[in-house]
Amino acid sequence: MRADLLEGILAFTKVAEKRSFTAAALELGVTPAAISWTIKQLEGRVGAPLLTRTTRSVGLTEAGTLLLDHAQAGVAQIAAGYDAAQALGARPAGLLRLNLPTVAQPVLEPILPGFASTYPDIELELTIDDRFVDIVAEGYDAGIRIGETIAQDMVAVRLTHPSAMTVVGSPAYFTKRGKPQRPEELAEHACINFRLASGGIYRWAFKEQFDAGGKVREFEIAVKGPLIVNGSGPSLSAAVSGVGLAYNVADNVEPLVRQGLLEPCVEDFMPIMPGFFIYFPSQARTLPKLRAFLDFYARW
């Protein structure tokens, strides 16, 4: 397909419609001379005259009639597509694709019913993915990640405040196995592991501050247990059932703790997670569907 295939087609269809170079030029906002030059270039590429010209009228040659029969429908479809795209840019509608890690699922789940009813013309697609994704290359409108992992060339909007991580287990589990006091004691406990998208097993992170103004030691522990999952929900469900201890964001676990289904342990050794952010390239901020999502979450 030639790169110049569509050049001059609009000018040609307008001249054919108006039967006048002057009227076509007026509607397209250019000079008659520019229209004449464009048509000559188009005729050169076609290899045949398209219009007959006299001092008083403009007509179509046989080649011009054939081209017009095909071109008019194409121009109309392009115009309709342009109008549809322009309309989509003016109202919250269309497919909104978000990429988020497993641990961020509880951040969005509570708002989904209200968002769907408020914006029925937006189709929200959530992809759960623990990889570090290039959202532009993979066709996402935005991503959700922990703040410190977001590329600097992205616009980032905070969704949650900083929150501690936590290790939790069921009351029944702690009654049977006891409560660990230090992270090192987890080696004697059944822990629910989390498999990353890369295939590796997530190592539980901890910190220890030796005194009020002293050095903080950050370290990770590879825990062992009877179960490996790849989602936050199954991990917490298993912990509630007494299978073992789960590692998660404290805010995600708080409702289960409040209900008495889970209890935290080793609380003095838990690091602070900087919070979740939604991020996107700067030009995406103008998309009404994304603006609608940001505004709705901010109001929620």
TrEMBL record:
Q: Where is the signal peptide?
A: none
PROSITE patterns membership: HTH_LYSR (PS50931)
Please give the family membership noted in the entry.
Belongs to the LysR transcriptional regulatory family.
User: What would be an example GO MF term here?
Assistant: sequence-specific DNA binding
The protein's matches in Pfam families, at most eight in alphabetical order, are given as: HTH_1 (PF00126), LysR_substrate (PF03466)
Q: Which residues cross the membrane?
A: none
Q: Give yes or no: UniProt keyword Transport.
A: no
| Gene Ontology BP term (one) | DNA-templated transcription
| Superkingdom of origin | Bacteria
**Which of UniProt's keywords are assigned here?**
DNA-binding, Plasmid, Transcription, Transcription regulation
Q: What protein am I looking at?
A: Transcriptional regulator, LysR family
Record the organism. Sinorhizobium americanum
Q: Which Gene3D superfamilies match?
A: 3.40.190.290, Winged helix-like DNA-binding domain superfamily/Winged helix DNA-binding domain
Q: What is the lineage of its organism?
A: Bacteria, Pseudomonadati, Pseudomonadota, Alphaproteobacteria, Hyphomicrobiales
